[in-house]
Automatic annotation (TrEMBL):
PROSITE patterns the UniProt entry points to: G_PROTEIN_RECEP_F1_2
Major location (coarse): membrane
Region entry Disordered, spans: 343-389
A Pfam family recorded for this sequence: 7tm_1
Signal peptide residue numbers: none
Name under which the protein is recorded: Melatonin receptor type 1C-like
Keywords noted in UniProt: Cell membrane, G-protein coupled receptor, Membrane, Receptor, Transducer, Transmembrane, Transmembrane helix
Top-level division of the source organism's lineage: Eukaryota
High-level lineage: Eukaryota, Metazoa, Spiralia, Lophotrochozoa, Mollusca
Location(s), subcellular: Cell membrane
PANTHER family assigned to the protein according to its UniProt record, in alphabetical order: B2 BRADYKININ RECEPTOR/ANGIOTENSIN II RECEPTOR (PTHR24228), G-PROTEIN COUPLED RECEPTORS FAMILY 1 PROFILE DOMAIN-CONTAINING PROTEIN (PTHR24228:SF74)
Gene name tied to this protein: LOC101855619
Low complexity composition-biased segments: 365-382
């Protein structure tokens, strides 16, 4: 496999001439797009590369820290053992690999303002981008089917094997993207583009690119959209009946989980869509190289933000993360002060201390009684405190 990579030619140049130094004159370097000489407008500026590298470094460090912390608290606390959280850990692992491999390599090239790692690594990054992005999208697509079954066909969900479905999701979401790397043309599919500081698929592999887009992007997106529309219709039609039963809190929790994975999907799309749209429109690469650095940074930042969604939208995960960092006590004091301020704004008197005690222990939360919580009318009072479970 290594020898096949070494045989690749970059627009007629020997593949051993890998280094593209943007701090030196490139008048004699040939552009892979058409053989014309590169001018200063055909390469990113040092300012754009350095700013982009700093932003990417911050996002990379946060993304690795957040995903590792989220995985750690889920795997080490029995209260967080659930099918939903297994999916979250799987997504975290996917993000950690993507950040640690793809984003790290791109970050290094931005800091150095040159590509010195060879065409083999360049093509590897191209394929790994497809692999991790496709895996994340299929995760969200198959999880949306899971949410549809839970919310709309709960009786059926109680009968199926949770373990079997979990194994199917985790396997399918990774096997399908891997299939696009198993090709006899591996190692001869890319060409280096100095303007983008990355490798692109050669034009003769247009069918391959189209299949990747359809299979790894469009299909999981369509699955998710259809499932979420069905869930919305189901909830809208049955909301009044559910409010009159004990399933109200259950439905609220399931809808919150569904929203969380929907936000993860939107974040993936928001990160990738600008770059995908621009590349589709600007097929001749006529836009500024600095602009491409900017949308690449947007994609890198979006890859790092999933832990924020998990923490904001899942109070148990958030609470255990605070506990793992030793911030639980200060966070609980903040909760108590927030509740007191809300109570003073709405009723003119502080809330009873028993409510704070009711949320002090994760996994054993006792719902406050009607006598301990004064009725509130402010919209802000419905917002959960950051440490509440």
């Amino acid at each position: 496999m290594a020898s096949s990579f070494n045989d690749v030619l970059i627009s007629g140049q020997d593949a051993t001439n890998y280094s593209i130094n943007f701090s030196q004159s490139l008048g004699n370097s040939s552009d892979v797009g058409g053989g014309s000489n590169l001018s200063s407008q055909d390469r990113p500026s040092s300012t754009a590369l350095h700013i982009g590298a700093v932003v990417m470094l911050i996002a990379l460090l946060w993304g690795l820290f957040g995903n590792i912390l989220t995985s750690f608290v889920i795997l080490t606390n029995k209260d967080l053992k659930s099918t939903t959280n297994v999916f979250i850990v799987s997504l975290c692992i996917n993000d950690i690999l993507n950040l640690g491999i793809n984003n790290m390599i791109v970050l290094i090239s931005y800091f150095m303002m040159e590509w010195t790692m060879g065409l083999a690594i360049c093509e590897m990054v191209m394929h790994f981008t497809v692999l991790f992005m496709g895996s994340s999208l299929w995760h969200t697509g198959l999880i949306s089917i899971h949410r549809l079954i839970v919310v709309c066909f709960n009786n059926f969900y109680k009968k199926i094997s949770k373990k079997a479905y979990t194994i199917f999701v985790l396997s399918f979401a990774r096997i399908v993207p891997v299939l696009f790397i198993i090709t006899p043309h591996l190692g001869r599919m890319s060409q280096f583009q100095p303007k983008l500081i990355r490798c692109l698929a050669r034009k003769e592999f247009g069918l391959y690119t189209m299949l990747v887009s359809v299979t790894l992007q469009m299909l999981p997106s369509i699955v998710l959209i259809v499932c979420y529309i069905a869930i919305f219709i189901k909830v809208f039609r049955s909301s009044s009946a559910i409010r009159a039963t004990r399933k109200r809190e259950w439905l609220r929790r399931e809808i919150q989980v569904t929203k969380m994975f929907g936000m993860v999907f939107l974040l993936i799309i928001i990160g990738y869509l600008p770059y995908g749209i621009v590349r589709f429109i600007d097929r001749k690469l006529e836009l500024s190289a600095d602009f491409y650095v900017g949308i690449s940074v947007v994609y890198a930042v979006a890859n790092s933000c999933n832990p924020i969604i998990y923490g904001v939208m899942d109070r148990k995960i958030r609470r255990y993360c605070f506990r793992a960092l030793g911030l639980e006590e200060s966070c609980m004091r903040s909760d108590q002060q927030m509740k007191k301020n809300i109570s003073l704004r709405t009723n003119g008197e502080p809330e009873m201390a028993t409510e704070t005690a009711a949320v002090s222990t994760p996994g054993r939360t006792v719902a406050p009684t009607a006598t301990t919580v004064a009725p509130t009318t402010s919209a802000s009072s419905s917002l959960p405190p950051p440490c509440q479970v």
